[in-house]
Structures are given as C-alpha cells and as structure tokens.
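#lab-general

N.A. 3:47 PM
ok so I finally got the sequence cleaned up, no stray characters, all 362 residues accounted for. can someone with queue access submit it? mine expired

B.Y. 3:52 PM
send it over

N.A. 3:53 PM
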Amino acid sequence: MQTQKPLLPAGARRLAAWCGVLLLVTGVAAVVIWLCVALKTAVTPVLLALLGTALLGPVHRRLTAHGVNRSVAAGFTCVLLVAVVGGAGYIVVTALIDTGDQIVRSLKDAAQWVADHFGVAGNTNVDDLAANGKKLVDKFGASAAGGLLTGLSLVGSLIATSVLALLLTFFFLRDSDRAAHLAHRIAPRGAGDLIEAMGRRAFEAVEGFMRGTTLIALIDAVCITTGLLILRVPGAVGLGALVLVGAYIPYLGAFISGAVAVLVALADRGFVIALWVLGVVLAVQLLEGHILQPVIQSRTVQMHPATIMIALTAGASVAGLLGMLLAVPVCAAASGILGELREGHLPPVDPASDTPPGQPGP
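B.Y. 4:20 PM
back already:
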C-alpha cells in the first residue's frame, strides 16, 4: 500500500510546531499579565512578600538550624525586616529631604550652564522651564489626588499593602518547609518532582538576586558617597542614597544616579571636579561589573544586559516604577525555571538526528 506523502516538508512542519508553541506561550503569558494587573491589589503584596522572604530567608534558616522554633524565627526575621527597611527608608528620606533643595538647585544651575554654553535651550530660560514643570506637577498632583479623601485612601492602601506583605512574609518563612508537599499535592500526576524542582530553582534565582543586589548596592553607595565627600560635592549623602535606591533598577538606576552626581558637581564645583566625579562613578561601575557581580552573584542566574533592559521596559509599561523594581526578579525566576527544564528534565537529543532517542523519525 502506497503511503501518502506529507503535505509539507519536515522543516515547514517543525517551523509550524514551534510557531504554535510560541503562540500558546505568548497567549498564556498575556493572560497571566492581565490577571496580575487586574488583581494588582492582591498580587503586589504577594510579590513583595516573596522578595522579603528571598532576602531574609538565610537568616530564618540559620535560626531554625540552631533550634529556634519556626514561628519565633519567622517573627524575629519579620521584625528584622521592618527594622532594616524602616531604617534604610528613614536614612534615605532624611538625606533626600536635607539635601534635596540643594541638589535641585545644582541641577538647575547645571542645566543653565549647558544652555548657555551649547545653546541647547535657545532663548528659553531654565527658570521658565522649571516654573512650567512645577505647574505641570501641581496640575498632575491636583488631578491625581482629587482631594484629601483620595490622598488618605492612597496612604491607607500603601499601609494595608505593607502590612499584608509583612504578614505574608511571616507565613512564607514559617511554612516554607511545606512548599515541597504543596507542589506534589497540586501538581498533575507524575509532575510533582518537576514542579518542585522548578519552584526551588526559581526561588534560588530570586534569592541570589536580592542578596547580591543588596550587597552590591551598599558597596556602590558607600564608595560613591566617600568619593563625593572627598571631592566636597554638596549633597553627597543624598546622592549616595539615590545610588542605593537606584541599584535595584540595573543599569538605568546607576546611569541616572551617576548623571545626577556629575551634574551637581558641575554646577557647584566646576568642570574639573565634575570630571573627577565622573571618574569615581565609572570606577565604581567597573568595580561592580568586573569584580563584585562575578564574585557575589556567581552562583545566581546570569542574564544578558539586553534581557535586563527588555525586562525593565516591559515592567515599566505594565506597572510603572513598581514594575521596573519587580521586572528583573521575575525575569530571574523565569530564567531559573527555563534552566531547570533545559538541564534536568528535557529528554536528550541525538546529535545525528533531529528527534529524541527512542522516537521514530519523521
């Protein structure tokens, strides 16, 4: 009996199969993102709690390893989280309040210097631009606030989100040993090990990113603040606080904080000091890129800079600043899951053919 030839060649069938897979994955991802945006009130505390758990998980594990009760260890870790985040927030906000006016004034002087020497602004005065910008900000703030009630509602929402994230962090830390049993319970038959391995790999990637980024941010902030203090740049502590906060947004945060530091030095200390500040910023970035990241984050998921920039752009388009802060950890988790699938659970491919061993060819 004569077999009928396939309508399409093998290459076209493979291409069609891959296109179908990409369409399916894209559709599922779009639905997940839409659900996250629609349920952002519930999703945001969960994501923040996962980041807090990833950051302080080693502390909880060390306490339980020394015989401390899991609930007590989780409570102590949450108190430590509140102390660290509250203390860092107080230092950053205080530094920005104390030196914010000086930094803004220096930035305005630097913009005027650029306009005078390069004719960028033409006949437009920087003071007029600042006044117009202030009017736009006031107008936007008035429309966004919508009165005292809306402002109080926003504050209440932030407090509720923070409290819920803290409570979820407590439960995630206390019941983390049950995650493997939960994965086997909810997974389809035979897929429990795969779900558990993917979850562990994703959380390890987020955990490594949080620990490494926090340590690198502290080192960058200390080094740049020290350099600015030595060069007697005004607002050095506030600029260091910007560096600390901006480090959690890779590349973009470092670029913005470094540019602000250079412009402030240009306005108050002159062109030569601005060049020295630029040298300090570049030296710290070289230290981070060639020494700190390879040493501190050598065991975490390594992502290409282009992947990080695409993730930041996508996060900003979906959820603004919060999306930019969460984009890279989510991307790291996804990269960890793909790495687990590629390394441990996909069937090997015979290099002599395009089909896995044990399956008939096309």
